[in-house]
Amino acid sequence: MMHRLNYVFATIIACFLAISCCPEKPPTIVPCQTDRVVLVEEFTGMKCVNCPSGHRKIKELQQTYPNKIVPVAIHSHWPVYSAPQNGYDFRTADGEIIEKDMKASNLPSAMVNRKYFEESGVYALEGFTNWAGSIAAELCLPPDATIQLNPTYDDNNRKVTVTVDVAPTNAVRMKERVGLTVLITESHIIAPQEGLSGWDYNYEHNHVLRDVITDTWGTKIQEKGETLTPHQEVLTYTLPTDWNPDNCHLVAFVHYQGDERYVLQAAEADLVP
């Protein structure tokens, strides 16, 4: 009887040791499944030697989150960062207003849905290593609206007409007045860029802010305290002759217009369908 009990006890101990020695499997992390699209406004410049690292980071994040990030490259108005080079000048009046009002300073820096980061007291996060976590967090939040962009382009007069449809996804009352901003970016522009190893005169610039075709801070579509209702906006714009329409994109985003500038949802579409 004692021999049998010893055998059972030994078997239990052996099983316990076998289980405890098994490597622990890490939890499976499932990416957030929402329809959120995040606006990332990167402050950059042709004379900013660290900015190519920021450009590469944006490209990497786009590959990590396909069709979930809308990047806009705002070239700084400060000559130390963005003085014209070889006839190229990517500075815009709207970009200067945004940069000054959002108090962007050191480059590269980026705004993520124009969120205000209270712990650091900034809208624009400095250093490209700080962007990924904030973008991932925003992607986990369900959007308050959907945006549909339907552009048409007439090559004869270089006129684009875009219909923007905004629809609510819930019945939450808006805590600020709500606006809609629509702008144009251009990619695949070969122009100079200074980097840590010197000037690259065949650098490809992407997502460059060309113009905001609404007011800089958007068109009002809903009052504070109201629930968001469906809204349609039809806009026209004539492209300058030195822009390549095939490389241009339309960007639209719904956002607060009060003390907060937070972006509720963003969307992007080819200018030439």
Automatic annotation (TrEMBL):
Keyword Metal-binding: no
Pfam families (alphabetical): Omp28 (PF11551)
Superkingdom of origin organism: Bacteria
Protein name (record): Omp28 family outer membrane lipoprotein
Classification via PROSITE patterns: PROKAR_LIPOPROTEIN
UniProt entry tagged with the keyword Lipoprotein: yes
Species this protein is from: Aureispira anguillae
Assigned keywords, A-Z: Lipoprotein
Gene3D superfamilies assigned to the protein according to its UniProt record, in alphabetical order: Immunoglobulins
